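General statements about sequence and structure are easier to judge against a single worked case. Part of our work consisted of pairing the sequence of a single chain with a tokenised description of its backbone. The amino acid sequence and the backbone structure tokens for this protein are reproduced below.

***
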Amino acid sequence: MDNEEISVDQPRVFDARDFRKALGHFATGVTIVTTRGEDGAAIGMTANSFNSVSLDPPMVLWSLARSARSLPAFARASHWNVHVLACDQEALSNRFARAGEDKFAGLALDPCPSGMPLLPGCSARFQCRSAFQYEGGDHIIFVGEVIDYDRSAAPPLLYVTGQYAVAAHKCGPVAGAGADPDAAQTGPYSEDMLGYLLGRAHYQFMARFRPALAEMRLSDAEFFLLSLLSVRQPLGASEIAAHMAYTGVELTLDALQAACARGLLQVQAGGYSLTPAGNDAILHVLAAAKAVEADLGAGMGPVQATALRNLLKTLVSASDPGLPKLWP
């Protein structure tokens, strides 16, 4: 078969949808860019084309489709602001990505010397003076000089492969004792096994507040039981058993009656609920657990702590055998 010769100067004809998917493998932050129209009306849009250009002078760029309704306003604007969204601003990103609505309705804006809309609660913000505009195929590239900026500890919102994401820093080995930390572990059991990591993390976390459990004379089963009822009560015996099925602890009627005898539970018309003593006991333990959580979160940093919660929720969702919803 003859080999077809392809010129390096002649690009392939790409499938637009597949090309977009390939570009989506490059993870980006999510920004909202704002300015004001000639009539002073606030204008904003979601964009993930933001990037840095120069440190001296400080300059950034972003691009806007030629078909965008807001293109004339940004093309004429002397200033615009770029907001790097925090991981809890997904709804704000969706709002500014939609057309045909008042995107600023009900939003409180921070003061800005240039008068451009400045959104609060972001991971970082850049106030820019428009410097250059360039042709970029079906987009216009805007370059601006940064005249002021601010940043917070809030982890940024990311976008990759068509979905929102959160950042996580890579972690090295946690249990390997080899001289080479990058050496691959061999054998059927390694520290990368999900069960090992989840189990060790669970027991190490609980070990930090076990003194509070001992002080209240609560077993693990009683801790799970009282935690459940602190969220939702009263519950019948069958409802309690259904909610606690994931713990591997079987809550028998004898165990429930023993908790009542200890003054931790009481029987009401709708089932079992906490007594004042039971409520005090679980609040004491949960306060200790929250203190451990805060301490670990400070050691991990907000980016890692946010990523951990997100991944654990994903795992819970993926492995859920159909347990009742705990929070209505």
In short: The chain has a mean pLDDT of 90. The two ends are 66 Å apart (CA to CA). DSSP finds nine helices and twelve strands in the chain. The longest helix spans residues 276-300.
